[in-house]
Amino acid sequence: MELKESLAAYFKENADYFHVEIRLLQYEVQIIGLDSLVDLPQSIASLQTQTSNLVHASLQPAALLKILGKLIEPKLEAIVPEIIKGNLILFEPKSGTCSAVLPISKNVTRSVTSPETENTLYGASSAFQEDINTNIGILRKHCSGGSMQVETYKVGKNCPKSLLLIYHENRVAPRLLHSVQAKIKAGRDQEVDHIQQLGNILGVNPWSFVPNFNMTEMPQNAAHSLQQGKIVLMIDRYPFAIILPSLIMDMFCLKDDYNYALPFMYLIRFLRIVGALIATIIPGLYVALVSVNPEVLRLQLALSIANSRQDVPYPAFVETLLLLIVLELILEASVRLPKSVGPTITMVGGIILGQAAVSAKLVSNLLIIVLAGTTIASLRLSDFRTR
Amino acid sequence: MNKSDINNSHMDNPAKPRTAIKLILLLVGAVPLLAGCWDTKDINHRSLPVIMGISLTEENQYKVFLDIPATNETSSVNIVSETGDTINDIIDDISMNMETQVDLLHLKIVIADKNVARRGMEDIISAFNRSRDISSKTLLAISDQPLDQFFSDMEAKSEQNGSIIYDYFEKNAGWNPQLADTRVWQMFRSIHSYTHDVIVPIIRSGQSTSIECLGAAIIKNGRMTGQIGTDETLVANAFYGKSAFGKIEVMDSATVQITSNRLSHHSWLQDGKPYLRSHLRLKVTILDSRGHPTETQIKEKLEELLTLRLNKMFRKTQKEQADILALGQYFRKHLTREQLQDWRSGYYPNLDFKLRITTVVENRGNLKHL
């Protein structure tokens, strides 16, 4: 009983560790696993169903366990990783054979839902989720050709995760593929809990303001990128596909656009580009026009701006900065807040950015319009992170 | 699997933040150097005069009027004036005495008193061109009445709207082809060119309308030498190609509207005498007719009338040696630079100029019969 005790010692802090004995055919078998990952009654029932038609064959314990699962060394080092993975360990003490069985597992993943961070008008609306196998399944449905390749890497030392490298064999550029493969292999020991760590493995500049890879929650976007010859990375328990490399036009083009008529597609993309330019230029342009070069404005406009800025205490620069910060605060707060408190922020923010700030003579009327335009324009971009 | 080696590899790949931090510090350090961002005045701390009036006092000093549209709700226009020796000096004085900075960037119209125009505006125009804030697109006009009177009338009339005069000259608002349209740069060109003179509208405050146009002043080398009426201004504008939608009354029988015009020239020099044959092609539409004139009659009369008006104006300018139609331009290839110097005095008075006018009546104003 040495193994049993040492296992119990190893898992003594874990409340979900179980160790029960059942009877399979003529043998007393110990079942070991984690209650949180294994559906025990169902698994036992399944094991017994499988063994019930083996009654007449007199099998050695090793042969029996081999039929049920994969034989492993009855040692602590071999068993613990299997338990943590969520497998069930069968141990027959008399002969000392041990096997890891794929159990009926408890469902710890949500079902496939519609995307939360992206919206699609005309297109499939199932999103990736946490379970990596489901994700590959969805992706395979979208790429029905045979050339999609899925490579699995185990990365991380303490908390190993599977990192999937997916590509279209016929489309991907070999140089890109080899360099990504080499980088993942070289960085195998590093943890990947978040995107920055993935960036470290891939050797991208962490200080870059421009995202080095696109992320999408929608399988059709990932499939489209694969078609274009890009590489998709997926991390276990991370419901986004990470697309490499990211091109500048990815900010303005979406797969969804192809579902419109061609002229509309080009118009929409053009609008997004204009939106990006407006969002970057307008606040600065406002300051420039109001305080440095008012001669550019038409006379009537200049007069009405001057009128709306009467009694505003701050120079245009400070005024714009102030309101931009408030705007970013509101945006950040509304992303972070739970849905039940969200409307409060919308309302309060609306009051601050609306009439109140103007009537308090803190900012001018026009600035509100300018900033509203900026926000709307900046949110036109296809990816939230590129804002 | 060992429990002891947990959580020691989170910071295993610190990126190189040093260069980035250095760069950011450098950029932050460069902020005070952005001198252009500090010494600026917001738009509500500037006065944006739209009209400048210039007259002469009895002591031969300039008196400058500025018409500043107000930016508050209570009043609509603010008129300030000051006397001094030079224009810039006066503007400086006004700026000093006002609560805001006078900024001539939006100046649209300069109105000169008739006396100033007769004495010559060369100094004023070169002052405008030297100062960087007055646009060379600024319009010029001449006032027929004393400017004190003119501006006080304007102030009384602009209760709702501070930019009456501006709108009066604005191409997309109140402008008509009977009004001459001359900018500061054109005046500057006229002062320094051998072959180019300009006409400047003459205005005064009106009885029922705010402003009345009395025709245009002939300006030679920046000095007003004579005057033409509004009808002649329309012909001159047609000659410049700016006549679109001008209306002409053809004797007593009809009124037509010019919809487009084209002009071609043929010039030559024979025995030192310049010859010019021009051909003006007009497209007109009939607005109203009295009796039942035929189309041919209207055409003939229109051509006769226009030729008459043009010839009258041409002879007047020949007498004054002011080439307002810039006919000398067509002789630049025939004359040397030294000869061009004498264009106004030597050649222009002898110019043999014949204008042929062809009219096309485009439509009869949506009616079948005349």
Automatic annotation (TrEMBL), chain A:
Coiled coil: none
A Pfam family this chain is assigned to: GerA
Transmembrane segments: 266-292, 312-331
InterPro entries assigned to the protein according to its UniProt record, in alphabetical order: Spore_Ger, UPF0353/GerABKA_families
Record bears the keyword Ribosomal protein: no
Keywords for the protein's UniProt record, in alphabetical order: Membrane, Transmembrane, Transmembrane helix
Family: Belongs to the GerABKA family.
Protein name, UniProt field: Spore germination protein
Organism this protein belongs to: Paenibacillus lactis
TrEMBL record, chain B:
Gene3D superfamilies: Nutrient germinant receptor protein C, domain 3 (3.30.300.210)
InterPro entries recorded: GerAC_N (IPR057336), Spore_GerAC-like (IPR008844), Spore_GerAC-like_C (IPR046953), Spore_GerAC_C_sf (IPR038501)
Pfam families the record matches: Spore_GerAC, Spore_GerAC_N
Domain Spore germination GerAC-like C-terminal: 215-365
Localization (cell): Membrane
Annotated keywords: Germination, Lipoprotein, Membrane, Palmitate, Signal
Protein's membrane topology: Lipid-anchor
Domain Spore germination protein N-terminal: start-end pairs: 39-204
Main subcellular location of this protein, as a coarse class: membrane
Entry-linked PANTHER family: SPORE GERMINATION PROTEIN B3
Family as reported in the entry's similarity comment: Belongs to the GerABKC lipoprotein family.
Protein name per the record: Ger(X)C family germination protein
